[in-house]
Amino acid sequence: MTPTWLEAPVHPVDEAAAAAAQARQARLTKPPGSLGELEAVAVRLAALQGRERPAAERVRMVVFAADHGVAASGVSAFPQAVTVQMVRNFAAGGAAISVLARALGAELEVVDVGTLEPPGELPGLVSARVGPGTANFQHQDAMTPAQLGAALEAGRAAVERAAVADCQLFIGGEMGIANTSAAAAVACALLAEDPSVLAGPGTGLDTAGVGRKVTVLREALARHGDLAAAPLEALRCFGGFELAALAGAFLACAQRGIPVLVDGFIAGVAALVVQRLRPETTPWLLFGHVSAEPGHRRVLEALGGRPLLDLGMRLGEGTGAAVAVPLLRLACALHSGMATFAEAGIAGG
Ligand SMILES: O=C(O)c1ccc[n+]([C@@H]2O[C@H](COP(=O)([O-])O)[C@@H](O)[C@H]2O)c1
Ligand SMILES: Cc1cc2nc[nH]c2cc1C
After folding, report:
1. DSSP summary character for residue 48
2. Is the ipTM of this structure higher than 0.90?
3. 19 and 99 housed in the same domain
4. Which of 86, 89, 205 for mutating ligand 2's site (highest number of atoms within 8 Å of CB)?
């Protein structure tokens, strides 16, 4: 039942490249450690890319979009039709991630994994529809096993295309009205937390709305046993097609040896599924930011992830990862462009 590719080995991290990068950092014209996290992230990228001087120039962004049956339970501030409307906005170049992709010179691909209405043919849009949205997980399992397999595969296929384009860094974004409920339910199942800890306003629910969301999540979680050790089953029962596609993409990146820059709450939960399924993926997952969605901090804590930015963003689409790309680029530029003490003739190195 479980797709066999999920069990393929994760790419090893290159410890020799990490050691060479660390040694180079020690020779650069600055007091040791004075560039803080910028040093650590350059060394980490060196280990992942298998080269002393890493780069984050060729960035691939993929936004996975899908609808959620649980939207019918009144858990979002926005109507479900916004999902497909935003897909058209991505393709037309008017969404926040479209602007960031242009500004960064990054390739942006949009994958329809199952909006309620098909968006039609659009430039840059890949159709990998698993169905017209998930079932409402308040009352039944969100996906069948076959749907879960197809959604995971949509993520893997996107990474295959990114690998052909020789990408150095992968960003997975998502769009799906009500997907903070799906992500919160999956995270509650994996972390054995009450929904009051992980459910938040999402697109903008008020306090009463968040209370309704918590009730819906408690009811859904109560229909299942303990899923803390069953990440794929939690994903199938509560997740979305885009969440599963993100999980498939993140795992495929780790298998292919492509570093991932994880976005916000929903992408973070996809990363948590992957980490619980295959803990050896951990080094491949870098974290762009911490979202204003309150549950994200708990998810990052569980992942052991340190976000690069904390800007109060809560948009999704991959935007919180995209805005961290310039930092990675600067970290790489410093790492490979600074003079060493010997080159500059400075004493004390
Ligand atoms: O990435 C985040 O941290 C994040 C936090 C809150 C909302 N979102 C976005 O908002 C949508 C889900 O919000 P909601 O309220 O409909 O569950 C979905 O399209 C996400 O991309 C994203
Ligand atoms: C307008 C809008 C844009 C989004 N992008 C990601 N999630 C979103 C939710 C809404 C409502």
Report:
1. H
2. yes
3. no
4. 86
